[in-house]
């Protein structure tokens, strides 16, 4: 099903989590960024349109100013994001430039999605960038966000982006290759769930505690994202971003993950199409 969804989709939103972008020592993984840009470029060449939602501003900030590693004050965290966002985008810019592709940056907050004028401007900017062959890269504006205007995680930001852009498919790359019936890091007998038709029922039946090491999201935020996207008929795939050629393997059918099917795919599946 994953290969079919990618083949059918033209407009794809891809979220890259902080754990995927970070090396074991917590610094930014430039080799991964270059390899992932190459995979995106291949899909774009084949006729796909791609919008990236990229975490990693804080990770990139720590890579640049490592003497701030132990500072936990919110002002330092936001300052790190201000520094790191520049580094992060420069890495993406350099990587995509290898394939003759330009990138454009959008930094957003919750308020941007609740104000109709900002939403219209965001939508128009997205469509213009993609139509002109530019790869939009979106992140939450962590340097200015506070609790009341903070989306809080890029899983939900990517779902909101997918809805805004009328995407066909949302892919969340995380540090896990799908949803399991229980935490696979604690329980060796955990079983991956290949297809989810009802995220609300899934939430009732599995444990969703915990967050990732570098990121702010856990399984709960991914289920939230699936619900948001699915309500608008957008399919979602949760897969392991650290797997070799993660995006290409999903496209050729060799990769694995959990598929959250939207309303339209549900109708096709149950009608035998």
TrEMBL record:
<dbReference type="InterPro" id="IPR019797">
    <property type="entry name" value="Glutamate_5-kinase_CS"/>
</dbReference>
<keyword id="KW-0028">Amino-acid biosynthesis</keyword>
<dbReference type="InterPro" id="IPR005715">
    <property type="entry name" value="Glu_5kinase/COase_Synthase"/>
</dbReference>
<keyword id="KW-0641">Proline biosynthesis</keyword>
<dbReference type="GO" id="GO:0005524">
    <property type="term" value="F:ATP binding"/>
</dbReference>
<dbReference type="InterPro" id="IPR011529">
    <property type="entry name" value="Glu_5kinase"/>
</dbReference>
<dbReference type="InterPro" id="IPR001048">
    <property type="entry name" value="Asp/Glu/Uridylate_kinase"/>
</dbReference>
<dbReference type="GO" id="GO:0004349">
    <property type="term" value="F:glutamate 5-kinase activity"/>
</dbReference>
<comment type="pathway">
    <text>Amino-acid biosynthesis; L-proline biosynthesis; L-glutamate 5-semialdehyde from L-glutamate: step 1/2.</text>
</comment>
<feature type="binding site">
    <location>
        <position position="55"/>
    </location>
    <ligand>
        <name>substrate</name>
    </ligand>
</feature>
<dbReference type="InterPro" id="IPR041739">
    <property type="entry name" value="G5K_ProB"/>
</dbReference>
<protein>
    <recommendedName>
        <fullName>Glutamate 5-kinase</fullName>
        <ecNumber>2.7.2.11</ecNumber>
    </recommendedName>
</protein>
<feature type="binding site">
    <location>
        <begin position="174"/>
        <end position="175"/>
    </location>
    <ligand>
        <name>ATP</name>
    </ligand>
</feature>
<keyword id="KW-0547">Nucleotide-binding</keyword>
<dbReference type="InterPro" id="IPR036393">
    <property type="entry name" value="AceGlu_kinase-like_sf"/>
</dbReference>
<dbReference type="Pfam" id="PF00696">
    <property type="entry name" value="AA_kinase"/>
</dbReference>
<keyword id="KW-0963">Cytoplasm</keyword>
<comment type="similarity">
    <text>Belongs to the glutamate 5-kinase family.</text>
</comment>
<feature type="domain" description="Aspartate/glutamate/uridylate kinase">
    <location>
        <begin position="11"/>
        <end position="238"/>
    </location>
</feature>
<comment type="function">
    <text>Catalyzes the transfer of a phosphate group to glutamate to form L-glutamate 5-phosphate.</text>
</comment>
<feature type="binding site">
    <location>
        <position position="154"/>
    </location>
    <ligand>
        <name>substrate</name>
    </ligand>
</feature>
<feature type="binding site">
    <location>
        <begin position="216"/>
        <end position="222"/>
    </location>
    <ligand>
        <name>ATP</name>
    </ligand>
</feature>
<feature type="binding site">
    <location>
        <position position="15"/>
    </location>
    <ligand>
        <name>ATP</name>
    </ligand>
</feature>
<feature type="binding site">
    <location>
        <position position="142"/>
    </location>
    <ligand>
        <name>substrate</name>
    </ligand>
</feature>
<keyword id="KW-0418">Kinase</keyword>
<dbReference type="GO" id="GO:0005829">
    <property type="term" value="C:cytosol"/>
</dbReference>
<dbReference type="InterPro" id="IPR001057">
    <property type="entry name" value="Glu/AcGlu_kinase"/>
</dbReference>
<keyword id="KW-0808">Transferase</keyword>
<keyword id="KW-0067">ATP-binding</keyword>
<dbReference type="GO" id="GO:0055129">
    <property type="term" value="P:L-proline biosynthetic process"/>
</dbReference>
């Amino acid at each position: 099903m994953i290969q079919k969804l990618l083949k059918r989709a033209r407009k794809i939103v891809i979220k890259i989590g902080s754990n995927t972008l970070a090396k074991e020592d917590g610094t930014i993984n430039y080799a991964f960024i270059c390899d992932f840009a190459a995979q995106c470029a291949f899909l774009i060449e084949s006729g796909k349109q791609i919008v990236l939602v990229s975490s990693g501003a804080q990770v990139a900030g720590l890579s640049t100013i490592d003497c701030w590693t132990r500072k936990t004050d919110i002002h330092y965290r936001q300052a790190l994001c201000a520094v790191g966002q520049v580094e992060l985008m420069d890495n993406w810019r350099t990587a995509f430039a290898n394939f003759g592709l330009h990138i454009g940056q959008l930094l957003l907050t919750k308020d941007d999605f609740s104000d109709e004028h900002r939403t219209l401007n965001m939508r128009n900017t997205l469509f213009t960038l993609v139509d002109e062959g530019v790869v939009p890269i979106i992140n939450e504006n962590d340097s200015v966000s506070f609790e009341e205007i903070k989306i809080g995680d890029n899983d939900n930001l990517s779902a909101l982006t997918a809805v805004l852009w009328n995407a066909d498919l949302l892919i969340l790359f995380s540090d896990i290759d799908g949803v399991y019936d229980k935490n696979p890091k604690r329980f060796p007998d955990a079983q991956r769930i290949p297809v989810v038709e009802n995220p609300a029922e899934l939430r009732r039946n599995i444990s969703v505690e915990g967050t990732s090491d570098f990121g702010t999201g856990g399984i709960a935020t991914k289920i939230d994202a699936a619900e948001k996207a699915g309500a608008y008929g957008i399919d979602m795939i949760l897969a392991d971003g650290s797997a070799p050629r993660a995006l290409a393997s999903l496209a050729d059918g060799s990769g694995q993950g959990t598929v959250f099917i939207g309303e339209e795919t549900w109708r096709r599946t149950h009608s035998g199409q």
